[in-house]
Design brief:
The chain is built from 16 helices and 26 strands. A hairpin with a 4-residue loop joins β12 and β13. α2 runs antiparallel to α3. It is globular, with a radius of gyration of 29 Å. Belongs to the OSBP family. Plays a role in regulating ADIPOQ and FABP4 levels in differentiating adipocytes and is also involved in regulation of adipocyte triglyceride storage. Weakly binds 25-hydroxycholesterol. Interacts with OSBPL9 to function as lipid transfer proteins. Keywords: Acetylation, Endosome, Golgi apparatus, Lipid transport, Lipid-binding, Membrane, Phosphoprotein, Transport.
Length: 699
């Protein structure tokens, strides 16, 4: 009760670019659930200059500093405010959040259930919105015809027979079709007028209908599991049935069952039906495919993500999504709207970190362990800039299990030698390593080839494995990454759990490394990416290590994208190189001999990757798998892109459900489980070792 008192006081309000910040007198009216403001305290008896409804609003402290916060109303209107200090901001934020929660919950308590209430969107010309005029159920036009059946007390529920499950599935499909029609009808309403798509009652109707269908789908899934267990035998005592499906938005959920049972199947584009009809991956050949680099052609795609596009238009959708999330919530199983996606898979994003293959190859040119560690740090820090496509933070496609991506790069040997200062001593040591006969021909070419393969090896948790090698320089890198994302208010944080290992076979060295965290900041305005956290690079054989700190922007001042690091010899604890700068701009390397080198990442040459044409790619290679989603995003057709994306995700859920019911393990194609990690099935270190053993035996 004492937390719900009305508070008032001066806050600074951001008006526009011209007038900037202005002092205004704000009043929190808890009884009405309103945030009002006046020009000053003396004008309080007059009409407020502005008013925000707090029911369904999102109150968020800003990342910019410790004084600023935003109030985002369900209507889409936003107040950007600034308090005098951090303590005052916390006071306002906490009171606003309490008031918002109280009035949001009151909406659900005060509204009658759907059984006695429905609306006709056909009567849009009425002067009264559903929030004003409440009528009994209209039989003529009703979105749902809901019946409630009560079981006789004391009677046991009979075991559901297979034909009953078919009936239930058919009813579920019909209900989902009606629910989609409802959502579509609401979203087609104008944004202004007596009855709008942002009407509080309609927003509540959308949310409750989605939650209801989610619950029904979960219950139906449990019935399927029970039926499957009855066919195999009864469940052991104490067995608990847990959720196997993510709690998803019904707007992104087409069906629960086979595609042929869906009533609207005939109305889907052929490409969607094709996506849904691809056979179960484990039924396809899981034998690793050897990709011939000669079949790959230089990539001509250049999908920069510098345009907000639909993100700006769909701001109310983002607000609605944020209102459903809680601080610290795991977003791994949350299906995000299609319009925030960039036009590539996460597997391809990992490949784009290799866009400077000349620096990667040049690591082996170091004549001493110290030089090689420094070369690796230089390559590592230059890889993140090109991995991001543009300044706008968008999300790559979540790879489906079994998805793969292949590519390669070609780099003229003269170009690498000129840049890295290759000398004879580096080549003399390489003669000690024997290549297999089928790889010897590559050493005679006038260019180096770096080959890359990535595979989504797990869905829950989402784990990707990727591997790259340059046979001619006898080097390869193997890594596995588990992406864990969390909601942080006005930011989304992504932790990259996993480890990578670089193998320099001609020197017998292994470099272990980790990846920094990534943050999508300012997700309600112009989202941008920030890296943060400390990563370590170690070489156990040589005793050299590097620590790199990606600094997030502090509340006061400071630069964006700042990075610092140092390379040292562990035995003597001597720092041999220091680095500072921005990971997407200019890096400064200072060496122990006093020399300094500057690397301008914006001027570094980018080598285009080589990929096979779509017609030569397998059905589970990233670009072919997501081609219809990508094409729709390029055309700006968000609805069509969502439909294709939904079909892929639904197929994956059905396959996962089938594997769970039949207790069939997933079969990976290119990567093998090794302890807590994943290793490429045919790494270069094994191939070279086998070749050396064979040569020794023949001698």
């Amino acid at each position: 009760s004492d937390h719900m008192e009305n508070i008032c006081g001066y806050l600074m309000k951001y008006t526009n670019l011209v007038t900037g910040w202005q002092y205004r007198f704000f009043v929190l009216n808890n009884d009405a659930g309103l945030l009002e403001y006046f020009v000053n305290e003396q004008s309080r008896p007059l009409k407020p200059r502005g008013t925000l409804q707090l029911a369904g609003a999102v109150i968020s402290p800003s990342d910019e500093d410790s004084h600023t916060f935003t109030v985002n109303a369900a209507s889409g209107e936003q107040y950007k405010l600034r308090a005098a200090d951090a303590k005052e901001r916390q006071h306002w934020v906490s009171r606003l959040q309490i008031c918002t929660q109280h009035h949001t919950e009151a909406i659900g308590k005060n509204n009658p259930p759907l059984k006695s209430r429905s609306f006709s969107l056909a009567s849009q010309g009425s002067a009264n919105s559903p929030g004003v005029q409440r009528r009994p159920s209209q039989n003529a036009v009703s979105f749902f015809n809901v019946g409630h059946h009560r079981l006789p007390t004391g009677k046991r529920v009979p075991i559901m027979q297979p034909d009953h499950l078919v009936d239930v599935r058919e009813m579920m499909s019909q209900a989902e079709g009606q629910q989609r029609d409802l959502i579509r009808s609401i979203e087609c309403l104008p944004v202004s007028g007596h009855l709008t798509s942002l009407d509080q009652d309609l927003l509540m109707l959308k949310a409750t209908s989605m939650a209801t269908m989610n619950c029904l789908n979960d219950c139906f899934h449990i019935l399927q599991l029970q039926h499957a267990s009855q066919q195999k035998g009864s469940l052991p005592a104490g067995t608990t049935i847990s959720w196997l499906e993510p709690k998803i938005s019904l707007a992104n959920h087409f069906k629960n069952g086979a595609a042929q049972n869906f009533p609207a199947e005939i109305n889907k584009p052929a490409s969607v039906r094709e996506e849904q009809s691809i056979a179960e991956p484990c039924q396809l050949t899981r034998e690793p495919e050897e990709i011939n680099p000669d079949e790959e052609v230089e990539d001509i795609c250049d999908d920069k993500e510098d345009d907000l596009g639909a993100v700006e238009e769909q701001r109310s959708v983002i607000l609605h999504l944020l209102s459903q999330l809680k601080l610290g919530m795991d977003l791994t199983r949350v299906v995000l709207p299609t319009f925030i996606l960039e036009k590539r898979s996460l597997l391809e994003m990992y490949a784009d970190f290799m866009s400077h293959p000349d620096l990667f190859i040049a690591i082996t040119n170091g004549t001493t362990p110290e030089e090689r560690m420094i070369h690796f740090v230089e390559y590592y820090l230059t890889s993140f800039h090109e991995g991001r496509k543009g300044a706008i933070a968008k999300k790559p496609y979540n790879p489906i299990i079994g998805e793969t991506f292949h590519c390669s790069w070609r780099m003229p040997k003269s170009h690498v030698a000129a840049d890295a200062g290759t000398n004879s001593s580096a080549h003399s040591s390489s003669e000690q390593v024997t290549l297999p006969k089928d790889m010897e021909g590559q050493a005679e070419l006038d260019y180096y080839t770096v080959k890359f393969v990535a595979e989504q090896v797990s869905h829950h948790p989402p784990v990707s494995g990727f591997y790259a090698e340059c046979v001619e320089r006898k080097m390869c890198v193997n890594a596995h990454v588990w992406t864990k994302s969390k909601f942080l208010g006005m930011s989304i944080g992504v932790t990259m759990v996993g480890e990578g290992v670089l193998h320099l076979l001609e020197h017998g060295e292994e470099y272990t490394f980790s990846l920094p965290c990534a943050y999508a900041r300012s997700i309600l305005t112009v989202p941008w990416v920030e890296l943060g956290g400390k990563v370590n690079i170690n070489c156990a054989k040589t005793g050299y290590s590097a620590s790199v700190n990606f600094h997030t922007k502090p509340f006061y001042g400071g630069k964006l994208h700042r990075v610092t690091g140092e390379v040292k010899q562990n035995m003597t604890n001597t720092v041999v190189c220091r680095v500072q700068g921005e990971w997407n701009s200019v890096l400064e390397f200072t060496y122990s001999n006093g020399e300094t080198k500057y690397v301008d990442l914006t001027k570094l040459s980018v080598t285009r990757k080589r990929v096979r044409p779509l017609e030569k790619q397998g059905p589970f290679e990233s670009r072919r798998l997501w081609q219809h989603v990508t094409e729709s995003l390029r055309d700006g057709d968000i609805d069509k892109a969502t439909e294709h994306k939904r079909a892929l995700e639904e197929r994956q859920r059905n396959e996962e459900r089938l594997r769970a019911e039949t207790e069939t393990p997933w079969c990976t194609k290119y990567f093998l489980k090794d302890g807590d990690g994943w290793v490429y099935h045919k790494p270069l270190w094994k191939t070279v070792s086998a070749a050396q053993t064979q040569q020794t035996d023949s001698n």
